[in-house]
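Suppose you are handed a protein chain with no further information: no name, no annotation, nothing but its sequence. What can you learn? This example shows the usual starting point.
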Amino acid sequence: RVCVCVCSANALPTKDMRPAAVLIAAAVLLCVVRLSRERWEFSGRGAPPVVPPTELLLWQQGRTAGAAAQPPTPAEASRSSTGAKSPGGGAESSGGGAKQPASGWRRALPDEVRQSAQWFDRPRTVEELLAAVPEGAAVWLSLSNSAFRDLAVNWAAHVYRLGKERSAAIAALDRNFVAALVAERLPCLELVHPLLERPAANLRSNVTGFRRFGAMKASLVLSFITRGRDVLLSDVDVVWIRDPEAVLRPLMEADVMSSTDCTSITADETYARGEREVGPARCAYMPGNRAGHAAFNTGVLYFRATTAAKAFAAAWRVRLLSVAEQDELHYVRTTEYVDDQYAFNLLLWHGFRNHPGGAVTSTRPRSRVISVVVDPKGSAGEANVQAAAEDARGARRTAFGWRSGWKQLVEGKVGVSRPGGAVGADEARPTSFAFAPLPARFFCSGHVYWVQQGGERRDCVAVHTTFTEGGDTGKVWRLREARLWLLDPPEYYSPAGGFLTFTPPQPLAGPLPPESDPSASSDFDDKYRTGWLVPTALRRSPRLRAHLELVRRHLLALRDALALASVLGRTLVVPRLPCLCDRSEAVTIIPSCVFEASDLELPFHCPISHILDLGRLLRMAGQPGGVPIRESTLLANPLAPRSLAAPGATVRVAIAANASAIAAMRLAGKAALSVATSDAEAKASLGRESRWGSAEVLHLASAEGIFGGWADAASGGGGAAARDRFEQLMRAYVLGGSWCCSSWYKPHGAFDFAEPVSTSALPGGCGRDERVDEETAVCMRTQQRRRAAQRPFEFRYVPARGGSRARDGYFSLEVPSRVAEPP
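A reasonable first move is to predict its three-dimensional structure. Written in structure tokens, the prediction is:
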């Protein structure tokens, strides 16, 4: 950073501007003083900090990357250099020490793992990690800062489950995170970076910081592969389910491997046949593909300690630190929004079809390892770089950063610092490298794992929480549903009041609705003429119409279950919800309702975030009268109390059509509710003072339309106050969702869900006894209106009227008058 100011007060046009000049000069002076102090600190003047060589190496790499990372203070460096060392660098090698982690996730580990595990009382050094991993073996790494603390600890917990902690470390990018990992006694490397430390927020919200974060990934990889160790690098939102060694072994001829965003296992496994010239979306990396989009994901990366892998990592780093340079592939000036994944893909896209005929080519027959040519002219072409520009496609050009990255390796500016640089004198700059896209069957994307497989592990070795709505909250929820989140405390599984759950509405019996309506127009009619307006898309897709109706029923059942959970003081376990249409921001979702180039089969169990704003829903628990929410798999989670699985722990509640049926069920010793249960009747039947009040789990046979309204018997009058409180919660935390999208212009392609009509405050005398309700005319009319308002109706969307929604072009669902709120 350079700060320069030349200012002359006498040169200003008017004397009125001179006070402003004084303020500017003072600000500049403060800036200069601060920069001078930083330069003084970083120059090492005064008392030089005691920095272990390996930490200094990583710090210098950060400075080479243009980031003035602050080295450890003398006290911190001294702490890192002392302590009784075990072979892997921890102060204790036994899991039975008196010092416990800051949180209780260790209970999720099997006893034998917990007893033999190694725990770490201080950050590891690179040298200690190298000593624990023999040459040719893999170091397991991840990088994070405090913003992703919980995800990082969960990542580490699964590494412990696999017994890989001695070979692993989390590179911590801020001091608070270092302290948190030490408190958890987890293996970490201290890689503090001031640009990523201030503030310790989501790195993606800081464009420059996130780009430097990617460059630090490459630098960290180089620190190990230049010293003979492979690197298995994964994001903290990845969970390792099984040891990947057996899956990686057949791919070890590759220099670099990465996961992909391919959502079709079928397409991903056609590499052995090479039948398709145009590859499916995101999967067009199979041998023989001459066209189509290939999407490589840096969530899971494997670098072997080969010359070509070193060259790739160095070029990747250069690409991230040169965003203002010419993009040699696309012939445009790049922007600052180049992140590690985009830079990684640019290197691959440049050369994975640089072969005769422009097709992806495998390194040997029937192999998924492909050859990527990044420097066609080789070392002899140094003087002909400019001459290569005549190729408009860039096929004969050298990949951006390939030569400059190699030069930095030779000069020892990156990787291990040693005489002669990070590569040996006998290592020539590679012209290509071998690359393996990791199999989608084993390295599962979020779409494969949660949408296509319904949260079942099947063959997955690792799962990455991609294709997930709701940010980090949505990722944690998905991991909870898969029983892969290990950080919840015991009380999460044993809330006061017990649980309530229900059987959700099911699709109508019969065949799946047809993919499209042949009588509907397929002409694009949205803003960009690349998609369809809401009414057009609805006519085109019978499946979408059926899905919207099924979601209407889900919302009704969920709303009524929330009302009963609120009345009974129970935590609601939301079941898995069957759906008939996937979500996508791409218009290719219309009319089939299947995510483009995926193996999804309809119907499927859709994540709750397809229907509700998960962040809002979970915040409801903190409000007066709010209902805590739990995931569908909680009752079967191994971390839940065994009593939940004991015989009799779950009481099944039947739903009866009339008072006589309820009386017969109760006489037979069964729990039962009516199809029009009020709050008072629910308390009498299932509340704390009832026969079933102590049951740990109440399971409703159905919740769709069973809540009859608010009697509020305790007040002796109507339940208007109770209704208003509940409806306010529903508006603020539950309702208001939509399906997306039939248009790239979201207002033209977003479908509001049909929300249930508000619950009712019952007339005086109603809702206290089922038999009396059936014999009282006003009570019967109230319930008849309620049931009429909950019947299916034809979905019709019209342009929004008034306000910003109308200006933006949104459509609103037109609700027939017969489903208006009853008086």
